[in-house]
Amino acid sequence: MATAETDLAAELARIKQARVVKSFCYTCPWQCPTEVYVRDGRIVYHKGNARAPNNIGSRCAKGMASWWVTEDPDRLKYPMLRTNPKGEPGRFRRASWDEALDFIAGKLAGIKEQWGPEAVAFTCHHDPNTVFYWHLLRDLYGSPNMYTHTSGCEQDRRSACLTLFGHVFPMHDFINSRYVILWGMNNLGANQGLWESRELIEAKKRGCKLVVVDPNFTETAQKADEWLPIRPGADGALALAMCHVIIEGDLFDRDFVSRHCEGFDGFREHLRERGYTPEWAEPITGIEAGRIRRIAREFATTKPAMSAIFKGSGYYTNGADAGRACYLLDAICGEVDKPGNLVLKDWAPLGAPVEIPEDAKAAPSKDPLHVAMGYPLAPDLPNSRLPDAVIDGNPYPVKGLFVQSSNPVMSDPNRDRVKEMFAHLELAVTCELFMSETALESDVVLPETSFYEQAEIRQGMWKGPEVVLCQPAVERVGEAKPAYEIVKALAEKMGFGRYFPYEKWEDWGELVMKDVPMSLDELKEQGFWAGEMRYHRVPEGLPTPSGKIEIRSKQYEDAGFEPYPVWSERSVKPDADFPLQLTHSKLSMHCNIITQNNPLLMEICGENWVEINRADAAKYGIEDGGYVIVESPKDRIRILARVVEGLVPGCVSVRHGHGFGHWAMGSVARGRGAHSNNLMETHTSPVTGANCYNECKVRVYPAQVRADSRPRRR
Ligand SMILES: Nc1nc2c(c(=O)[nH]1)N[C@H]1C(S)=C(S)[C@@H](COP(=O)(O)OP(=O)(O)OC[C@H]3O[C@@H](n4cnc5c(=O)[nH]c(N)nc54)[C@H](O)[C@@H]3O)O[C@H]1N2
Ligand SMILES: Nc1nc2c(c(=O)[nH]1)N[C@H]1C(S)=C(S)[C@@H](COP(=O)(O)OP(=O)(O)OC[C@H]3O[C@@H](n4cnc5c(=O)[nH]c(N)nc54)[C@H](O)[C@@H]3O)O[C@H]1N2
Ligand code: SF4
Ligand SMILES: [Mo]
User: Fold this and answer.
1) Angle in degrees, CA 685, 675, 120, rounded to 5
2) Residue ID of nearest Cα to ligand 2 atom 18
3) Which of 8, 145, 274, 634 has the highest count of CB atoms within 10 angstroms of its CB?
4) Are residues 523 and 548 in the same domain?
C-alpha cells in the first residue's frame, strides 16, 4: 500500500536520481531508522524514516553528519598486525585477512590449551552484529565471558531496574505523563531516542511538570520547571527522604503496593529506623527539607508520574542503591507500566542468525568473570576490574581479549591501568573503524565496515516491540568486512565453519526474522517492523524471584547486600589540597568518543571544556574562555574553561569527548580538546562493579596560554 511517505521517498529518489536504501543510524546506540539516498556509489542525501515510530523522521546533528564515516580517509582499510612488543607505542604492518585470522586462531587454540576457554573475554559498546562473535567464542569455543554495552555505561541503573522490575531497559512514556523527575538524565543534551526528546517537549507543552535533579544546569534542566541542584553523589539520600515523606504522609498507592510489591511494610520500617527524613537529607543533598517535602507530595499526588534515571546517579560508588531509591518512587506510587510511566517494553521476537545444535555447544567450566569477581548482580562486565584478571590473575587469568566498537583505553577510568592490561595480554584483537588508542595497544586490528556498508537486524529502541534493519548502501572501505563475514572466516580457521553456512546476509537475515510477523523482503522495503505497544504488564507477573516489584530485593539479600536501599557516602571527597569534585556530562554535538574525527561536527564543537561555577572561578582565578589545568592526585590535563552560574559550587564538570592523541591516526581529532579519564583512580560500585567516573577530587588553576577566539557553542 502506497502512503504519502513512501511516495515522498520515491519522489526524492527520482529527483536525486538516487537509489533509496532503508536503514538505520548507529552513530549513537539509539538506532534511528533512516532512508539513505545513493548515487554513483556515494551517499547524496539521507533523512529519517518518517514512518518509523522510533524517530518519526527526525535525526540529530550527529546522525546528519554521519555519512562522513563512509568517506573518512582515516578509516582502517586492511587488517594490521603488530610488529613490536606490547607496552611500547604500537607499530603495525598491513596483513592479509588470511594471515590475521590464522594468527588469531592459533593464539586462541594456545590459550584454550594452556588456560582454558574462559581465559578469553569479549567486550564491546556499540555492538554491531556482536552476536556472531558470541556464537563462535561462547557456544563453540566455550568462554562464558561475552560482555556488551553496559560494562562502561549504566551498569548500576540496569541492576536497579532488573532487581526491582525484572526489566533491563524501561522506556519513558513522557507524552502521557503529568509529572516527570529526571535524576541526572540529560535527554535534551545527551539525547536518547529522538522520540523521547520530542515527547518530553510535547508533554511539557501539554502541562506536564518537569523536575531535573542534577548538579549541572544542563540542556534539560534549562527547559525544566524546576532544577534541583543536588550535591554530587547525593541522589540516594534525596530519593529515600522523598519515599519517607510519601509513605508517612499516606500518599502512596496502597492497593498497588499490596497487590504488586514485595516488602512494602518492611521498607516503611526501614526508612523510620534509619531516620531518612527530609531534615536528615538536607545537609547531604544541599536541597532544603521544605522543598524535598513539596516535590515528594507533588510527585505522589500528580498522576501519571515518572521518576527516571540514567547515568548521573551511577557515577559514584553509592550509585546502585541510589538508582534503586529513585525507581522506588515509581513503585510506591503505583506508577509503573501505565500510560505516562516507565514502560516495561516488550522485545521483538528476533531469532539467532545461526543454528548451533545443543550437543555441539561447549559447556563452560567456570563462572563468568562478573560472578567470579563477586558481582553476581552485575548485568555486564565490571570492566574496571578486568585489569585485575589480566594483570594479577584475579579471580582467574584472562589472556585473550576481543574489543569491538569500543575504545576502553580512552573510555574507562584510569587509562594507565587499562594500557598496562593490554601489555599483559597474549592476544588482544580490536575490531574497529579507526586506529583507535585501544587498537594501538592490540596485537591485531581488524577493519570492520560501518552501518552504511553492512547489514544488521536489531531490537529497536521504541517503546513498543520494534525491529530495525540496516543494509549495505555503499561500497566497503578498503578490505573492511562486517562482523558476520569476519566470524565466518575465523570459524573456518578454528574448525567450526559448518555452523556459519550463510553465503549472503539475507541467509542469516531470514533466520533472525523467522518469528517476526514480517518477511525479510518486507523489512528491507519498510526498514523497520513495529508491533503493538502495550501497558499494564505488572499484574501479569514480572520476571523477579517473587513475580512482583521487589521493594525488598531477594537478589540483593542472596548476594549479601542490604535488601532495602541504604544511604552510604561516595568514596572520594574533596579536601584542602584538591577542593573540587570532578563530574562529567556528555556533549550534545558528539557521541562519546566516536564522532571527533568528523569535520562537520568538529566545526560546531571542536573541543571539549570544563565548566566551573562563577564563585569558584573567582576564588581560583579562572576566567571564562581561558585554559586551565585540572589536576587530581593522579594526573592533570589542560582544558578550556567555561565559567557558568548553573553548576553546584564545589564541583567542576568536564564535558566528555575529545582529547590527547584521540583517533591515534585521526587527522581531524588529534590534539583537539582534553581527555579526563586518567585523572581518576579505579573506583567501582561494590554491588555491580560499575565504573565510577566521578569518584575524583581535583584542583583547578589557570594555564599559561590563553584560549583562542573559537566560537563558543554547545
Ligand atoms: N549527544 C549525545 N547523546 C548521547 C551520548 C553522547 O555522548 N552525546 N551518549 C549516549 C550514551 S552512551 C549514554 S550512556 C547516554 C547518557 O545519557 P545521560 O545519563 O543523560 O548523560 P550524561 O551526560 O552522562 O548525564 C549525566 C548527568 O548526570 C549529572 N550528574 C553528575 N553527578 C550527578 C549526581 O550526583 N546526581 C545527579 N542527579 N546527576 C549527576 C551530570 O551533570 C550530567 O548532566 O547518552 C547517550 N546519548
Ligand atoms: N570521563 C568519562 N568517561 C566516560 C563517560 C563519561 O561520561 N565520562 N561515558 C561512559 C559511557 S556512558 C560509555 S557508554 C562509554 C563508551 O565508551 P566506548 O565503549 O569506548 O564506546 P564509544 O565511545 O561508543 O566507541 C568507541 C569506538 O567504537 C568505534 N566504532 C564506532 N562505530 C563502529 C562500528 O560500526 N564498528 C566498529 N567495529 N567500531 C565502531 C569508534 O571508532 C570508537 O573508537 O564511555 C564511558 N566513558
Ligand atoms: S539519535 Fe543517535 S541514532 Fe538517532 S540520528 Fe542521532 S546519532 Fe543517529
Ligand atoms: Mo553510555
Assistant:
1) 55
2) 406
3) 145
4) no
How far, CA to CA in Å, does 9 sit from each of 16, 17, 85?
A: 10, 12, 53
Map grid coordinates 514480517 to a residue: 518
Tell me how far the alpha carbon of residue 28 lies from the centroid of ligand 4, in angstroms.
9
Cα–Cα distances in Å, from 301 out to 59, 261, 328, 338, 505?
A: 36, 19, 16, 16, 52
Give the residue among 430, 442, 475, 396 at the shortest CA–CA distance from 115: 396
How many Cβ atoms are within 10 Å of 193's Cβ, its own excluded?
Answer: 23
- Residue type at 85 in one-letter notation: P
Q: 231 CA distance to ligand 2 centroid (A)?
A: 27
Nearest Cα neighbor of 87 from 316, 425, 370, 350 is: 425
Distance (Å) from CA 62 to ligand 3 centroid? 6
Q: Is 205 left (phi over 0), alpha (psi -120 to 50) or beta?
A: alpha
Say what the pLDDT of residue 4 is: 58
The C-alpha cell 584472562 sits at 398
d(CA 589, CA 3): 33
Ligand 3 neighbours, Cβ below 6 Å, are: 25, 27-28, 30-32, 59-60, 62-63, 191, 194, 591
Strands 171-172 and 580-586: unpaired
Nearest CA to ligand 2 atom 22: 406
Pocket-testing residue among 27, 461, 587, 604, ligand 3, by greatest number of atoms within 8 A of Cβ: 27
From the list 632, 566, 601, the residue with the least C-alpha distance to 415 is 632
Taking only the tens place, the pLDDT of each residue in 335-375 is 999 999 999 999 999 999 999 999 999 998 899 999 999 99
> At CA 615, angle to CA 610 and CA 619, rounded to 5?
90
* Residue 709 pLDDT grade (very low, low, confident, very high; cuts 50, 70, 90): very low
Mutation choice for ligand 1 from 586, 612, 680, CB with most ligand atoms inside 8 A: 586
Q: Which atom from ligand 1 is nearest to the alpha carbon of 310?
A: 19
Cross-strand pairs, 227 = 212
Identify the CATH number of the domain in which residue 680 sits: 2.40.40.20
Q: What is the dihedral of CA 338, 340, 344, 350, to 10 degrees?
A: 110
Structure confidence by residue, pLDDT tens digits, 393-402: 999 999 999 9
Task: Provide the domain limits for residue 405.
Answer: 80-152+349-530
The β-bridge partners of 467 are 459, 529
Using the 8-state DSSP alphabet, how is residue 90 labeled?
Answer: P
**Pocket perturbation via mutation, ligand 1, pick of 311, 572, 693 by most ligand atoms within 8 A of CB:** 311
Taking the C-alpha atoms of residue 552 and residue 276, their distance in angstroms, rounded to an integer, is: 17
Host H or E run for residue 80: strand 80-82
Higher pLDDT among residues 476 and 12, named by residue: 476
Whether ligand 1 lies within 6 angstroms of the CB of 154 is answered as: yes
Q: How far apart are CA 553 and CA 539, in angstroms?
A: 18
Q: Is residue 102 part of a domain?
A: yes
507 and 406 housed in the same domain: yes
- The end-to-end CA distance of the chain, in Å, is 43
Q: Tell me: do 361 and 265 sit in the same domain.
A: no
Q: What is the CA radius of gyration of the chain?
A: 25
Residue 374 and residue 393 in one domain: yes
Same domain, 639 and 498: no
- Does 276 sit in the ligand 1 pocket, CB within 6 Å? no
Residue 25 CA to ligand 2 centre (angstroms): 15
What CA–CA distances, in Å, run from 636 to 345, 619, 633, 679? 43, 20, 8, 6
- How many domains does the chain divide into? 3
| Whole-angstrom distance, CA of residue 205 vs CA of residue 500 | 52
Q: Of ligand 1's atoms, which has the minimum distance to the CA of residue 187? A: 20
| Ligand 2 nearest atom to the CA of residue 675, by list position | 1
Pocket test residue of 59, 191, 591, 598 for ligand 3, highest count of atoms within 8 A of CB: 59
Q: What is the pLDDT of residue 5?
A: 57
Q: Confirm whether pTM is higher than 0.90.
A: yes
For ligand 1, the distance from its centroid to the CA atom of residue 429, given in whole angstroms, is 29
